[in-house]
Specification:
about 160 residues; alpha+beta; four-stranded antiparallel β-sheet
Amino acid sequence: MIRYHVKRSKKSRRTFRYFGAFLFLFGAFLLFLFFSGMAAKHVIGAILGTLIALYGAYLFIHTFEEDKYDIDYEFGDTEMVVKHRKGETVYTYDQIDSVDLVVPENEMIYSLILIRAGKKKYLIPFSYKKDACDQIYAHLMARVTEKKLKEEIESNS
C-alpha cells in the first residue's frame, strides 16, 4: 500500500474567501449605484458589477470544496482510498476512468497526476518528489490498464 499526503495552505484558502467576499460586495455596491439612480446611464457598469459579484461568489463558494483542504491518498492493490475533510471515498480501479501524468519542462521541480473517476477529478501535486510520483503513477497504471485490457478483451470476444 502506498500512502501520500497533500497539504493545502490555510492562508491561501482564507485569502480566496476574503477576496471573493470583497469582489461580491464591490459588485453589489456597483449594482446599488446603478439601481439607485446615481449612475443610471451606465449600463456597462451594471453589467460589470454583476460579473464582478458573480465571480466573487464563485471564488467564495469554491473555497469550501473538499480538494481545498488536506487530502490523504492510499493506493492499495484493489482500491484507492481518498481521505478528505468530509470523510473518505473509496474507488476500485474499475471506477477510475483515466490517469494522466503531467510532466513540465523541468520535471525535477514538480509533477502532477490527474485522476478522473466519474465526475470527480483529483489533481495530485508532487513538488521535488519525482520518485514518489513515478512510483504512484506506475502503481496506478498497472492496476487501471489491467482492468481496461480485460474489459476490451471481453468486449472483442
